[in-house]
């Protein structure tokens, strides 16, 4: 059922070379899920996401100290080693300092004809940020036109947005089955679906998703008595992690907040905007609609958080003291952006999660700082969590021991949630 | 450290300005303590936030980096451990862990942790400068505002890789974007402190900071005279002025005094260390708990005479990294007449600083510096947990080695957490490095003689 998806991931470089040859399309590599692939696609390129590998990133170590995460060093290593020489250019949206360092080294020491760090604001829901990002997209679109030798019309962009939104919608429909008891697909299969979609033409991937949707209806149920887990944290593209968690059938990962899976596909492009200026639609999709990662902020969430039941424990921004009234004259509007912690807890509750695995790439600052608050957010909903630090090489033995111990201690979660928390997450 | 290492070959005269500097630093500490007692507004912020805004309001502006550095200097490791016990990983910035630990324990070198009325963070140089301050604001239950200084990261602003096509518009857009956010930040601070910003005072703060940065340029230039009139170690103490008190008049007075003194020293031939034999570059902030290690370098006739990290705070030098790439208007200071002018000048200044960590610019600049300051080698402090500052050090070291045959040494540590530094192995490596620098200098001299 998942063979087509797995085939892409088995040897992704071989697959990409074959796809390039058969499709006669050039390919643009990108690092971060915030990269607006639709513009690349509308220019006639196939966007291909960089994934890490378990190889020792020796070539990157000439340029990046070992206290930068191995995920980013692995990406640079692959670029410098020529493993991804089938790519015709590189682009990434700014996400974190470490990825930026990897990308800048690639720009200078790699041999790509085109490399562009696309500036995506760190503060995402202010009028200034939207205006600036819009101007960046205009410049990026022009670059893509020059690189492809063709003009990208608004209709081209609308068509690309349609294909990408369809991909998101189909994946989300399939993922609805993860809410079932038992779920209809495993966590490994869910990640296989999204990761494969980052490496192929989205039009083809949509076909694969449609077939999968049909086939899933006749699938035998997974094990009934397994524990329901959630993954939250740094980019996870090494599927060995799922062999550790789900390998013996004692638990399934039924949802996640990870940029390699749901954070990549959640949030379609607002329809009101598509009919107008499609670049503005992309601004809305990438800055507002999709779930934020920990390196994206909003200066005005302060006003909104005053009424948040998570205020006692954590939240993206804070006004923890309920007795304190927000004074008149607060100079900013309410944030449009969703709260990361609230989003994660909402996913957990909606998927009846019994335990959360908080995964952090070693040396990942944004996720490292969020850990403290994420644990408290889960606690507020009565969901236990465990912290796992990972590298590009998954050390099966030690991780398995910890995961098994965590699963063994899990008990059914009493989903008696305070009404105000339930209201907050809806 | 071995006994013989401690012997300073020839001691230089102490600085006359030193007591003046200490007085200003002590008076700033007292100002914070008094503000806590009197209920005067304290703003806690990242050093990369526009500090001139503090001048427009009656506030005391405490930068987390300065606070963390003093905690590191007094080796208060318990504070780091406290932050780690609260779930903040050891791999994170040690300034952040020191400050968070101080907040949880409510104690510091100032007595109690200075409770702010508002917190300002920034996103751009690194993610920590946002997340660290966000965590403090949450715990302190005070309003938080965040400024995005990352427009400097757009590709078109990266010297050496820009196509040129978007250069003008990207700079203009970035300056406007940042300037508007500064306006928002001031509005936020007015709301948080219940004060009305004073335009005249803001203009004065912007002009004073510009003046101080120009004086800092001059200090950097005097420092790299051959032989240098000041020991490199001293500059790290002066750094506090330009990082934590950049907009203040007392900073002007200290910088004027030290520059006059150094000019006099250059004229009279007074050296910073007794016998300057080799000239080195120091990259990144120092480990505040291991400043003594620099004594060893000095005992061997090695002086640090230049630092790209310290250059970053100068009015002219901060533009070094974008020279040839940035438009002229961007590098030129225009005296402000009103709020908007102020926001625009601050915006240009901070964006220029943010360009420093772009690798293409930094490897170009470090080569120029090495030639200009007649360097013999470089020490790169690989600062664990500080991804923004130790950015690109390996590429810089590689370029110095391959293009100028200058040896570079990577000293791994952290600015504030002594547990990240292992003195024994580091000293062995430093001894070898100093010998290597001397040998290579000799060889270059011989090669030059042969060539002539």
How would you explain this protein's 3D organization?
The complex is a heterodimer of chains A (about 425) and B (about 450). By secondary structure, chain A is an alpha/beta fold. Chain A has 18 helices and eight strands. Chain A has helices at about 5-10, 10-25, 35-40, 70-80, 95-110, 125-150, 155-175, 185-195, 200-215, 240-245, 260-265, 270-275, 280-290, 300-305, 340-350, 365-380, 395-410, 420-425, and strands at about 25-30, 45-50, 90-95, 115-120, 225-235, 250-255, 355-360, 385-390. A four-stranded parallel sheet of chain A has the order 2-1-3-4, sandwiched between helices. A four-stranded parallel sheet of chain A has the order 6-5-7-8, sandwiched between helices. In chain A, helix 10 links the parallel strand 5 (about 225-235) and strand 6. Chain B is an alpha/beta fold. Chain B contains 18 helices and eight strands. Chain B has helices at about 5, 20-40, 50-55, 65-75, 75-85, 95-105, 130-140, 165-195, 200-225, 230-245, 250-270, 295-300, 310, 330, 340-355, 360-370, 395-405, 425-450, and strands spanning about 40-45, 60-65, 120-125, 145-150, 280-285, 300-305, 375-385, 410-415. In chain B, the strands form two sheets. In chain B, strands 2-1-3-4 form a four-stranded parallel sheet, with helices on both faces. A four-stranded parallel sheet of chain B has the order 6-5-7-8, with helices on both faces. In chain B, helix 9 (about 200-225) packs parallel to helix 11. The two termini of chain B are about 40 Å apart.
């Amino acid at each position: 059922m998942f063979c087509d998806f797995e085939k892409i991931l088995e040897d992704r470089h071989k697959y990409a070379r074959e796809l390039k040859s058969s499709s006669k399309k050039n390919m643009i590599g990108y690092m971060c899920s915030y990269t607006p692939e639709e513009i690349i696609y509308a220019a006639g390129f196939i966007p291909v996401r960089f994934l890490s590998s378990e190889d020792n990133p020796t070539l990157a170590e000439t340029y990046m100290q070992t206290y930068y995460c191995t995920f980013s060093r692995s990406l640079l290593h692959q670029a410098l080693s020529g493993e991804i020489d089938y790519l015709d250019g590189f682009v990434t949206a700014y996400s974190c300092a470490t990825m930026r360092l990897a990308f800048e080294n690639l720009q200078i020491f790699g041999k790509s004809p085109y490399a562009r760090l696309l500036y995506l604001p760190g503060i995402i829901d202010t009028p200034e940020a939207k205006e600036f990002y819009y101007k960046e997209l205009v410049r990026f679109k022009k670059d893509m036109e020059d690189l492809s030798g063709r003009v990208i019309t608004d209709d081209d962009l609308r068509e690309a947005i349609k294909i990408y939104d369809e991909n998101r919608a189909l994946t989300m429909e399939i993922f609805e089955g993860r809410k079932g008891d038992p779920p209809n697909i495993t966590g490994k299969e869910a990640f296989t679906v999204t990761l494969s979609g980052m490496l192929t033409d989205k039009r083809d991937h949509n076909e694969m998703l449609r077939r999968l949707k049909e086939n899933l209806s006749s699938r035998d149920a997974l094990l009934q008595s397994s524990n329901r887990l959630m993954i939250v944290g740094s980019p996870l593209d090494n599927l060995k992690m799922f062999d550790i968690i789900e390998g013996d059938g004692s638990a399934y990962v039924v949802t996640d907040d990870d940029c390699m899976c749901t954070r990549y596909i959640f949030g379609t492009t607002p329809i009101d905007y598509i009919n107008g200026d499609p670049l503005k639609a992309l601004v809305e999709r990438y800055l507002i609609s999709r779930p934020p990662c920990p390196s994206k902020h909003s200066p005005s969430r302060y006003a909104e958080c005053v009424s948040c039941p998570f205020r006692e424990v954590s939240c993206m921004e804070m006004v923890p003291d309920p007795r304190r009234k927000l004074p008149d004259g607060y100079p900013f509007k309410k944030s449009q952006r969703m709260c990361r912690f609230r989003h994660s807890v909402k996913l957990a509750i909606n998927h009846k999660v019994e335990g959360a695995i908080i995964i952090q790439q070693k040396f990942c600052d944004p996720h490292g700082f969020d850990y403290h608050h994420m644990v408290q957010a889960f606690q507020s909903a009565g969901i236990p969590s465990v912290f796992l630090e990972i590298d590009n090489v998954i050390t099966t033995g030690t991780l398995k021991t910890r995961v098994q111990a965590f699963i063994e201690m899990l008990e059914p979660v009493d989903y008696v949630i305070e009404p105000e928390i339930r209201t907050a997450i809806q | 450290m071995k006994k013989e290492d401690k012997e300073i070959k020839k001691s230089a005269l102490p600085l006359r300005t030193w007591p003046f500097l200490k007085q200003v630093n002590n008076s700033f500490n007292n100002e914070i303590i008094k503000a806590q007692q009197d209920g005067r507004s304290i703003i806690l912020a990242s050093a990369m936030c526009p500090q001139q805004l503090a001048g427009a309001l009656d506030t005391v502006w405490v930068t987390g980096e300065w606070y963390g550095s003093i905690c590191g200097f007094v080796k208060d490791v318990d504070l780091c451990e406290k932050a780690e016990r609260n779930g903040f990983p050891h791999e994170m910035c040690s300034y952040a862990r020191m400050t968070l630990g101080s907040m949880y324990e409510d104690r510091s070198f100032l007595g109690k942790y200075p409770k702010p009325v508002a917190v300002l963070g920034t996103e751009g140089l690194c993610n920590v400068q946002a997340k660290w301050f966000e965590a403090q604001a949450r715990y302190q239950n005070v309003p938080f505002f965040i400024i995005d200084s990352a427009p400097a990261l757009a590709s078109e602003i990266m010297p050496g890789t820009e196509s040129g096509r978007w250069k003008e518009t990207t700079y203009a857009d970035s300056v406007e974007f940042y300037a508007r956010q500064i306006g928002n930040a001031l509005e936020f601070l007015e709301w948080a402190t219940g004060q009305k910003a004073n335009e005249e005072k803001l203009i004065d703060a912007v002009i004073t900071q510009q003046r101080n940065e120009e004086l800092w340029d001059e200090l950097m230039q005097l420092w790299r005279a051959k032989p240098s009139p000041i020991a490199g170690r001293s500059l790290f103490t002066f750094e506090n002025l330009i990082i934590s008190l950049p907009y203040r008049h007392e900073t002007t007075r200290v910088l004027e005094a030290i520059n006059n003194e150094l000019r006099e020293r250059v004229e009279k031939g007074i050296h910073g260390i007794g016998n300057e034999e080799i000239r080195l570059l120091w990259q990144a902030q120092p480990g505040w708990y291991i400043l003594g290690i620099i004594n060893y370098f000095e005992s061997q006739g090695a002086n640090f005479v230049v630092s790209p990290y310290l250059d970053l705070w100068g009015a002219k030098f901060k533009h070094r990294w974008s020279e040839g790439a940035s438009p002229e208007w961007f590098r030129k200071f225009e005296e402000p007449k009103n709020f908007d002018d102020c926001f625009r000048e601050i915006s240009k200044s901070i964006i220029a600083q943010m360009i420093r960590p772009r690798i293409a610019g930094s490897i170009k600049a470090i080569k120029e510096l090495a030639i200009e300051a007649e360097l013999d080698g470089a020490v790169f402090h690989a600062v664990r947990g500080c991804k923004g500052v130790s950015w690109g050090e390996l590429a810089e070291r590689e370029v110095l080695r391959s293009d100028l045959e200058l040896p570079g040494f990577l000293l791994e540590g952290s600015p504030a957490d002594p547990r990240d530094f292992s003195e024994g192995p580091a000293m062995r490596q430093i001894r070898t490095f100093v010998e290597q620098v001397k040998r290579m200098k000799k060889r270059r001299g011989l090669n030059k003689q042969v060539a002539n």
